[in-house]
Amino acid sequence: MPRSLLNLSPRLRPLFFCAYLATQLFLLFRAQTSPDLVFGFQMFNASSQLKISLFRKVRRHGRTRVVSVRDGEWQTKDRSGTRHTHRWQDRVRYRNLSTLDQFVHAAYGLDAQLFRLQYALDDFAQHLAGDQETEALIAEVDTRKNGREVGHVRLQADRR
Amino acid sequence: MSAFGDAWRRFFAEERDAWVLGLLRLAISALLFFNGLRLILELSNGGYFADYFHIPMLPEAWLPGRSGYQLLLGLQALASLAAFIGWWPREALLTASSLGLYFLTCDRLQYHNNRYALLLLGFLLAFTPCDRSFSLVRGREHTLPRDQRIAPTFARRLFQIQVSLVYLGSTGGKLLDADWRSGLVLFLRFADAPAISAAHGFPLPAWVVGILTSAWFASFAAKAAIASELLIALGIWLPQTRRLSLWLGVIFHVSIEFTARVELFSWLMVASYLAFVVPEVRERRFEFARGNVRAERLARLVALLDWCARFERTPMSSASDGAAFYVTNREGRRASGALGLAQLAEAIPLFFPLWLPLVLYAKLSARPRSPSPSPA
Question: How do the domains of chain A map onto residue ranges?
């Protein structure tokens, strides 16, 4: 007869059972307050869309300006004059967020994608090696919640 | 000892036949392998996830390095294969599912409910005696004799509860959302279907487009989806509604598989229904007329597809009765013809989608007649 370490003793079985169930119920209820409903088993929860437009806050000649980022790409020169190309899609490969300037499906709902977008902006802002002029990244996001025009959200990530 | 205490002890001491759990292990370990294979392909085509934007749920320092990740992915694939062939299958299942859960927490962007459900079910299955049948490494003796297959199956209950929780989580979110209840969410999904279908070279007929883009259909579909999930989540616990709930679940997931991209979800949930099959085997009988070509063919088909070992097959002498075959179910009801086929379909996984149509056909076409007595 096969022996296995996973044959729990009669005393351990109730402990395992209760611990597993308590963990699952905790995660299930906690998911309701999580923006991306992670561990919540909420499938097909929305038919929302979002359109992300990317901008940079730059400092030129002592003045701060907001410039549009076309196709997610821009070029800068560092102090030594070397040219650097920065591409949003090179760093952010997650499909829902890598598409710019057109409406795309917001998987798991708008809150989920806005939550992830903030992380993406923060991440990208920390990976702009050689960019001396960008002070912050800004995402202007148009949202449609289940087909209705809901509005506009502005997210920003400052470079530290 | 109180009644509750007795029930509690009985629950954790329950020992049942582990035949079907071995079959479930084959299905879950194959799905775990394909899930791991996807990660391997993503690594080879798209690169190491931590080199790009990711959202770890763990501290960044706990993430594996590139070579460590490659190693763990290889280990996960091997563990899935080992679980499939039955080489230390329970430990292998635990390894493959635990590694998968670890990968899931390494990057929140990779989280999908179907992947999480698969990993949890793989994890729980490791605590069941799923190693006592279908151990392919044992060759012809892949399944232990019945007395050695009887083992504690409390973790099977946990597996069943987890399946219910998947449906309850899903339907709960929909019930609380007014846009879902009204059908608006589905209406927008359906509205895209004609364009998507045309883009794939299959333009839908105008009348189908008319139905798909109508508000009443979306509203009906939304309510039907919520009711179906609720019935599956709760109905599988009651013997009276279990069969209908499982049938509804199969139809529900087949329709999802054809209309949405859900990775392995449909396969997973349909496979998980094996945990709700009565564990005891050979409690039904299939009798077929010896010498009757059609009956013998059907008998061979039953032998080939009776993966859950539901039937004891016995040939009958052709003189015993006019019918080519008889199927006796667990309740002792002996039937032939359409009803007999329905009783076959209810116990054979591949035929199960035909069960309700066959029952309805048998009921509608039945003429009043006296039932055949069971010879037992």
Answer: 7-41, 49-158
Q: How far apart are CA B43 and CA B114, in angstroms?
A: 20
Whether B185 sits inside 8 A of A42 (CB atoms) is no
**Residue that the structure tokens 């049942």 belong to:** B16
Q: Give this complex's ipTM.
A: 0.92
Q: Per the CB < 8 Å rule, is A39 touching B116? A: yes
> What b/e string do you get for B307-338 counting C-beta neighbours within 10 Å, with b at 16 or more?
bbbbbebeebeeeeeebbbbbbbeeeebbbbb
> Using CB atoms, which residue from B13, B113, B189 is nearest to A43?
B113
The pTM assigned to this predicted structure is 0.92
The C-alpha atoms of residue A92 and residue A123 are separated, in whole angstroms, by 9
Assign A102 to helix, strand or coil: coil
Residue B128: what are its φ and ψ, rounded to 5°?
-100, 160
From chain B, pick out residues whose CB is under 8 angstroms from the CB of A2.
Answer: 129, 131-132, 144
Provide the residue ranges of all domains of chain B, joining segments of one domain with +: 3-152, 169-276, 284-365
Could you report the average pLDDT of every consecutive run of 10 residues in chain B (376 residues)? 84 93 97 97 94 96 96 98 96 97 96 96 97 93 92 94 96 92 90 83 87 91 94 95 96 88 92 96 94 93 96 81 88 93 96 96 76 48
Residues A50/A147, Cβ–Cβ less than 8 Å: no
Please report where in the chains the tokens 């280990």 appear, as a residue.
B75
Which is nearest to B264 in space by CA: B28, B53, B9?
B28
What would the two tokens of residue B4 be?
């509750």
Contact B122, B96 (CB under 8 A): yes
